[in-house]
Design a protein that fits this description.
There is one protein chain. It is built from 15 helices and eleven strands. Helix 3 runs parallel beside helix 4 and helix 8 crosses helix 10. It is α/β, with parallel strands linked by helices. Strand 1, helix 2 and strand 2 form a beta-alpha-beta unit. Helix content is 46%, strand content 16%. Bound molecules: adenosine-5'-triphosphate (ATP) and magnesium ion (3 copies).
């Protein structure tokens, strides 16, 4: 089942059950506490918090999401993308636990001929919050799940709250067992690579008080309006239904891996490290495309920096695959073609997107050309030193070296960290940060001096004292009155 079809089945299923279909919001988060939309419920937060009345009692969406938190997992686990799509169904004071569990079970295990996803009920496991007996009983009654396939988990995994006064409540997660060839017996609490989490149901049930952070807070009572918020990973369902090993091999992502194979002349499936690199490329190219489609442009801070980092990581992964030539002009159109069926606006915006992306790759190649030799030399030196004096110590690149790479060659610290780590070298990040801090303070002092309407007199004073003490004899300092 193609990803676009799974998406459509989802929307049809919930629309047919009284949910209003709400189009995906852009990736740029409306909530100032995060850069990007990280879950399907983000656009609905004002309704969940009761700040606004929802215009509908039930809604459904397929929301574009970006989670930078998962960047290190990409390509290594089978299930984490930096960009992914979260299918959601939402109830604002309408149905609650029983309705949510009934819908989820019916859609997941319903036959494909009847619009369901057709998962074998025997492969389904769920988790519930440790004291949520109500949810456990519902899973038993509605789905007929045996006790051992209803596992209990604590607050860290199975509880939702914002961290402040407001709604909170237990979650229930749905997992698919991929079978013994993927790992150990015993359910998701034992092995989350074999048992793949596909869907999270959040039951907003209680009003929590202030204080106590995210894990240990007072419960003030039951909410007057109980809400349902769910999120199903579209790519996760897609890779399970398409019978491939991981989410980077689905129809919306794999074409980029194929293009990377052709460009590099290396075969996907032949070498573990190369496979991870190809998956990183496919993931990051797609995330970059989707971010640029929503108007993000590369820059040195905030969202633009995340985009820059994704683009640069894809280019570097291609280099590690042996590709020195420009890669994005081949890869980006492939990703666009794979994503356009669900996001036709990408084709319209592609001229602008590609111009920005290709310019970024070009600029980055110059950065790399300038700094890579310096970095490699420094890495070799510290490795020799570490090997010579104290063979057990991890070789460490100094803060000054990292700072020089940043200041002179435009290497952001992430790049230095990653490139050094590839060669088994750590970086003295603390020293680097304090050099950066000092530089910022100098810049601030300069700006203040300028804003005060006069030149930076420190330099004059320094010059003055040098001149007067060393070479030229007494000099009259005019810096306060003349420029
Ligand atoms: P995991 O434990 O696998 O990291 P999660 O518990 O962090 O997932 P949720 O926050 O519950 O995920 O998000 C709801 C659903 O979105 C998940 O059940 C999963 O199907 C999907 N999902 C979450 N993170 C990702 C990701 N990085 N890539 C693809 N799908 C994701
Ligand atoms: Mg996660
Ligand atoms: Mg989880
Ligand atoms: Mg979850």
């Amino acid at each position: 089942m193609r990803t676009a079809e799974i998406r459509q089945r989802w929307l049809d299923y919930f629309e047919g059950r009284g949910h209003t279909v709400v189009p995906s919001a852009p990736l740029i988060s409306p909530d100032p506490s995060t850069l990007f939309v990280i879950a399907g419920m983000v656009p609905f937060i004002p309704y969940m918090l009761g700040e606004q009345t929802a215009p509908w009692p039930r809604a459904t969406s397929v929301q574009k999401c970006v989670r930078t938190l998962d960047i290190e997992e990409v390509g290594k686990t089978t299930r984490h993308g930096t960009f992914f799509q979260m299918n959601g169904n939402f109830s604002f004071g309408d149905y609650f636990k029983e309705g949510a569990i009934t819908y989820a079970w019916e859609l997941v295990t319903g036959s494909t001929a009847d619009g369901g996803f057709g998962f074998d009920p025997e492969t389904i496991w769920v988790t519930v919050y440790h004291d949520d007996d109500e949810a456990a009983a519902l899973w038993k009654r509605i789905a007929g799940l045996p006790d051992e396939r209803i596992q209990r988990r604590g607050m860290k995994d199975n509880y939702w709250s914002t961290g402040a006064r407001g709604p909170a409540g237990p979650c229930s997660e749905i997992y698919v067992d991929r079978g013994p060839e993927y790992g150990a017996e015993g359910g998701p609490v034992v092995d989350e690579d074999r048992y793949i989490e596909i869907w999270n149901l959040v039951f907003m049930q209680y009003e929590r008080g202030d204080g106590g952070g995210k894990e240990d807070f007072p419960i003030l009572g039951e909410l007057q309006q109980k809400n349902i918020d769910t999120g199903m990973g579209l790519e996760r369902v897609a890779y399970l239904l398409q019978g491939v090993d991981n989410m980077y091999e689905i129809d919306e992502v794999f074409p980029v891996i194929q293009a990377a194979q052709e460009l590099s002349g290396r075969r996907y499936g032949a070498d573990r490290d190369d496979d991870v690199r190809m998956r990183v490329v496919a993931d990051h190219v797609r995330s970059s495309l989707m971010l640029m489609g929503d108007g993000v442009t590369p820059s040195n801070e905030g969202r633009g920096y995340v985009l820059r980092r994704l683009l640069r990581r894809s280019v570097r992964a291609m280099r590690l695959l042996g590709v020195e030539d420009l890669a994005l002009p081949t890869l980006l159109p492939v990703s666009k073609d794979a994503m356009s069926p669900s996001y036709p606006e990408l084709a319209e915006r592609f001229d602008r997107i590609s111009t920005v992306a290709y310019a970024e790759e070009d600029a980055f190649r110059r950065t790399l050309a300038a700094g890579t030799t310096i970095l490699d030399t420094a890495v070799r030196t510290v490795k020799t030193q570490a090997g010579g004096d104290a063979p057990s110590a991890t070789p460490l690149l100094s803060g000054e070296q990292a700072f020089q790479l940043h200041d002179t060659y435009g290497f952001p610290i992430d790049l230095t960290l990653e490139m050094a780590a590839e060669q088994g070298v750590s970086v003295d990040e603390t020293a680097f940060r304090s050099l950066m801090q000092a530089q910022r303070q100098r810049a601030r002092a300069d700006a203040l001096a300028k804003r005060a309407g006069r030149a930076d007199t420190a330099a004059y004073q320094e010059l003055h004292s040098t001149l007067s003490s060393e070479k030229a004899g007494p000099v009259e300092f005019l810096g306060y009155t003349d420029t």
